Task: inverse folding
């Protein structure tokens, strides 16, 4: 039997949100910066993302973080968030998963009671401060890249709901913040499936209208 690809993937979660980490088996993603590497995955070759995220190995609700050597000297490591739709530049919960894996696997030396880990991401440098005890990472706080509001009260058309108003903001990735009352919903457990389906419909329409203003809906 001839092996074509070997990956080492560590199971990690952040308060139940799955953020697996690829620690071994990926080399040579083209690009001199993490943004260029992420764009390569999204625009040229996303076979790795599909391999680890799509069924039977993955599912819609999980993320897999691609761990790579940093492109900036001040960083300990770099990562790209792989999700069901594409590769993303940053995620708070996934950064926590990456830091936990780096420290508990000994890839970055753990210092008790606190270890500082600098991450190189497509969105910029992120500094993590991890509380550590008895070889475990017990808590992580993040100093993120600067957040800002891109546009308030941005209006876009949808085929099902008509005009919808959203606030566009950046916090590592772009988000469109929408009051769900505009689409006849309220935030409640019984509306989880309807909310997810509604988000998909509005997301696709909005991205066609304004690719530069927002790239994702939370």
Result:
């Amino acid at each position: 039997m001839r092996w074509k690809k070997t990956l080492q993937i560590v199971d990690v979660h952040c308060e139940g949100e799955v953020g697996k980490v690829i620690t071994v088996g990926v080399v040579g993603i083209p690009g001199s910066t993490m943004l260029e590497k992420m764009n390569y995955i999204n625009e040229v070759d996303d076979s790795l993302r599909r391999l680890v995220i799509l069924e039977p190995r993955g599912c819609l609700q999980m993320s897999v973080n691609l761990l790579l050597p940093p492109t900036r000297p001040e960083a300990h490591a770099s990562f790209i968030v792989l999700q069901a739709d594409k590769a993303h530049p940053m995620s708070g919960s996934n950064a926590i998963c990456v830091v936990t894996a780096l420290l508990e696997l000994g890839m970055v030396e753990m210092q008790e009671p606190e270890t500082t880990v600098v991450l190189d991401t497509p969105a910029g440098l992120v500094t993590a401060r991890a509380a550590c005890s008895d070889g475990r990472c017990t808590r992580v706080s993040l100093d993120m890249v600067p957040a800002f509001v891109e546009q308030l009260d941005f209006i876009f058309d949808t085929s099902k709901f008509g005009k919808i108003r959203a606030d566009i903001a950046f916090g590592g990735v772009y988000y469109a913040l929408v009051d769900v009352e505009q689409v006849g919903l309220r935030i409640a457990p019984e509306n989880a499936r309807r909310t997810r389906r509604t988000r998909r419909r509005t997301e696709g329409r909005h991205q066609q209208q304004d690719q530069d203003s927002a790239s994702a809906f939370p």
Confidence is low (pLDDT under 50) at residues 204-218.
